[in-house]
Amino acid sequence: MTSEIAHPLSLAVNGRDYSWPVRTTVIICFDGCDPAYLEAARKMKAIPAIDRMVRDGFAAVALAAMPTFTNPNNVSIVCGVPPAVHGVSGNFYLDRATGEEIMMVDATPMRAPTLLAAFAKAGARVVAITAKDKLRKALGHQLDGIAFSAEKAHSCTLAENGIEGVTGLVGRETPELYSADLSLFVLDAGIRLLEIQPTDLMYLSLSDYVQHRYAPDEPEAIAFMRAVVGVVADHGMNDMAADDGEPNVLYLGDVLDAEYGRGATRVICPITDPFVRHHGAMGGFVRVHLFAPHLDPEVVACLVRSLPGVAFALSRDQACERFELPEDREGDLAIIAEKGTAIGARAEDHDLSQLAGERLRSHGGLAEQQVPFLLSHPVTPQHQVELGVAPLRNFDIFAVALNCVRS
User: What digits encode the pLDDT tens for the residues 244-267?
Assistant: First the structure.
């Protein structure tokens, strides 16, 4: 059911056209869901709902936005465009104009409207629910609708979130932050809202707690998959530990300090957010800023390329062109790790003690770019052909769901 008030047949948002939803449309961002998690769970016959989507709907593998971190990709999905347009290229970045290190905890870095806000403004009934509150303000940017997080479910207000009494609605208290239940709470809240009120568009963004902690074929990962129906992901996930279980880390900041002196360079780890217990603020992508005038970016890049575990060392222009990144938020160099290697700043900047003996599993590089792309309904034959020509991106999900599904 869609809104009874007059609405346009379609909306243009950030240069893309979206048809008005003819039925309730729910998009779930399955945080950290590498296709390997679906493959392992399907072998165990643990995900019949997703099996039905693969069989009767539409299933493909899409590419996530780079770097493959949570914030750039969630914002890409709800804006329908890459970071070069919306401006969010990491969870954490260095402001080149001020020299200030900034952690994204609200919508301040965003330069583009979300399609959620655009549809709500045009009269659609829109809901956005996220696991962690760090994303809630971005997903709810200028949204005249419901937007809340499972993390802060107990303190939702009508003024701030468009809803109150969430824990009572769902029937249980706010879940633990570091738990699989954080994601399940998001799904349960979405289901309850669909049961009690008409909704046109709903976006549910989960947590990657399980994927950071467990490999695809581990029992805990399979058990979690039994409870989840996902349609797209923000990034994949890979093991970044050596055979002996110790984290396989290149501390790039220490290498550059030894070569050029402390203070000549600064390594920024864009994965950094308020929740570093899973990954110690290390992943497969970092930015290097050069502060010494005599340093030639290409000379530094050549040094970095020679280091074990480095796949690419790109200049700012190269990184922006290849990965559709905003130029003013990029460093002088973008460094991408090989699969299985994590890159950090200095060893002193990272605390891996919270891993408590668990293997380091993280993301950020090209090895974590492939994600599942699933729809519960089949697309039209014409669109089936068109979607097979160009590579799908995870931020195409709203366009395909609204424009390409059979009536």
Answer: 999 999 999 999 999 999 999 999
Q: What is the distance between the alpha carbons of residues 205 and 212, in angstroms, rounded to a whole number? A: 16
DSSP of 167-195: HHHHTSPPPPSSSTHHHHHHHHHHHHHHH
b (16+ CB within 10 A) / e for 190-217: beebeeeeebbbbbbbbbbbbbbbbbbe
Q: Are 74 and 50 in contact (CB under 8 A)?
A: no
147 SS3 class: strand
Contact 159, 140 (CB under 8 A): no
pLDDT digits (tens, 9 = 90+) for 261-311: 999 999 999 998 877 667 888 999 999 999 999 999 999 999 999 999 999
On whether both 357 and 387 belong to a single domain, the answer is no
Q: Are residues 213 and 315 in the same domain?
A: no
> Do 220 and 72 reside in the same domain of the chain?
yes
Q: What is the pTM for the complete model shown?
A: 0.91
Structure tokens belonging to residue 299: 């000379």
Residue 2 domain flag: no
Burial call 107-126: b when 16+ CB within 10 Å, e when fewer = bebbebbbbbbbbbebbbbb
